[in-house]
UniProtKB/TrEMBL annotation:
GO terms for molecular function: phosphatidylinositol-4,5-bisphosphate phospholipase C activity. Its EC number is 3.1.4.11. InterPro entries: PI-PLC-C1, PLC-like_Pdiesterase_TIM-brl. Residues 1-26 form the signal peptide. Keywords: Hydrolase, Signal. This is Ca2+-dependent phosphoinositide-specific phospholipase C. It comes from Streptomyces achromogenes. The keyword ATP-binding does not apply.
Amino acid sequence: MRGVIRLVALAGAAAVLAVAPVNAQAASPKFSQTTAIGTHNAYEKDKYPYFAQALDSGASLLELDVYVDSVSHRWRVSHGNPLGNDNNCEAAKTPSELYGKSRNQDLGSCLDNMAAWNRLHPDHPPIVVKVEMKVGFNDKAGMGPDEFDTLVAQKLGGDVYKPADLLGGTYATLDAAAKADAWPARDALKGKFLFDLIPGTVEQANPFDSYWTDEEYGDHLRDLSAAGNISAAQAFPAVLGAANGDPRTSRYDASIRPWFVFFDGDAATYVNNGYDTSFYSANHYILIATDAHNVSPAISSTTPTDAEVAARLALLAKGHASLITSDWSAKSASVLGSVTTRG
């Protein structure tokens, strides 16, 4: 079937490494036309001592886990502690303060680090910041989508590529803009961050919470657009979970389906089930394929060879992924910064 991800026999390392990076071409491709590499849980200190080093890594996607602490009204960054911070973000607001201040800070400091780093690297390639809202938002406690937008806007300002930028004053919904391939060229996104939001593991396991991050932020985008204030939105909600066909149809009310153009699913699930992933590239949606190392034949989740990373990138690019992620933080910037043509 055309468009289905298929395993490809690659004859030797030379064939694997023959994938030409698109940034070597004369004309910059659109953001929707490329496949790049991201780092899972890039805030963890065993991956990078400082978050600025995660930004230095060359990775095109960095993931943060965020807990809404409704008691202290803080956005905690941690893997498993909802009331504390455990991360490599530091108390640094200027370039000279990076790489040496106290760590274990909240989301605001992670954003401060990004802003300071951006001043040192104003022409960096676009970086997607994937935020897993571990317990979801708590809008009733003043920790909802509006407050998230305000925090990101205050810290990063014009350094964020927003939903309104994709709409460009021309399209009524993100879906319409994506289908028209209104995404800018990668060169036009130099110095920019793109935020995408997924529901968290704790949120999904909570039997008393059926209103998850994705739906809540989708409602938020719809309502902002209706109010003529879509420029306030700072993030793209992502549809979580590998599926065949359009997963929005069975998950969301028709009023918010057109506000989802980011999709996030397990790479091996797409492959093993033979899902027709051409749906994503045909509509110029952004597809994040996670745990890329698990696709058969499985490779190391931490220290694969350069040839194995190149082969996996090539395979999943043919499978229409926009970004592939794993825990390959030990790899060099020349590897993590690899970008190739999307299938």
